[in-house]
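We store amino acids, C-alpha cells; thus:
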Amino acid sequence: MSGDFPRNDKQKPNYALVFEDDFDSDHLDDTKWYPYYLPQWSSRARSKANYRFEDSKLILQITEDQEPWCPEFDGNIKVSNLQTGVYSGPLGSELGQHRFSKKCRVREEQVETRLFTPRYGYLEMRAKGLRNPNNLCALWMIGFEDRPERSAEICVFELKGWNQSAGAERSTVGFGIHPFGDPKIEDEFFEREFPIDASRFHIYAVDWSAEGVNFYIDNALVHTSKQSPDYPMQLMLNVYEIPRPAHESEQRPVYPSEFHIDYIRFYQKI
C-alpha cells in the first residue's frame, strides 16, 4: 500500500481509552511526555528533544546543529525522544533505565517520574517514518526498571532508513521483544518486509496482555508472542541519526530529519 492508511476510530470495543495525544496543541503536554532521552546517562541539556507541531501532528526532528546526546557512552549518535517516565540511581551508579552499555554510569541523577507507566493494554500509533540512510525512528515500551530485572522492551515499530529499498511499495519494519536484564524473557525480534510505504502514514500497534503480545500493522495481525513482561512499562518515541560507515552510505545526512506522528493512543480492557 503506497498511500496513507486512514485514522482508526477512537472507540475500541471492550476497551477504554486511558492515554491519548492527538498533538492538536502548539506545545508539548508535559503531563504526558518527558522530552529527554535516558538523561541519567548524559544530561537533560544534551538529551533534550527537538520537535515542532504542524497540522495537528508532532514532528520529532534531528537538526544539523544538534549535538550527540551521550558522546561518552554512545559516540556520535543524535536523538530526539519523548518518554513517559524516568528512573535513575545515584550519581556515579550503574542503576538506571535501559543501560545500553556496561560502561554506563549515572552522570546526572534524575527525579523519579511516572507520567504514564501502564501494565497491559493496547498501544496504537499512526505515523510516517523516513527513508534517510542515517536515520532510525521507533515506538517502543521499556520496563520502568525500578528493579533491574524489570527491563524488557516491547518494540511496536522500528524503521531503519538504511534497510529500505529505493522503491516505495515495500518497507522493512522491525518489531518484537528484547529481554535486556529480564531473565524470564527471550529475544524475539523480527525485521520483515511488508507491502507498505512506511514513509507514508500507517498504523502500528500492540495488544499486550498477561498471555502475550500481538503485533499489528494497519490493523492486520503480523505476529503473536506468548511472552509478556509482567510489570509497568513506559513509552519511548524517538528518531535517531546513526552515522553509517562510509562504504555503506554515500548520502550525507538530511536536515532536518523528521518523524511525523499523528496520534498515540493507549487502551485497557474494560
User: Anything to note?
Assistant: The chain has two helices and 16 strands. The two ends are 33 Å apart (CA to CA). The longest strand covers residues 257-269. Residues 44-47 form the longest helix (4 residues).
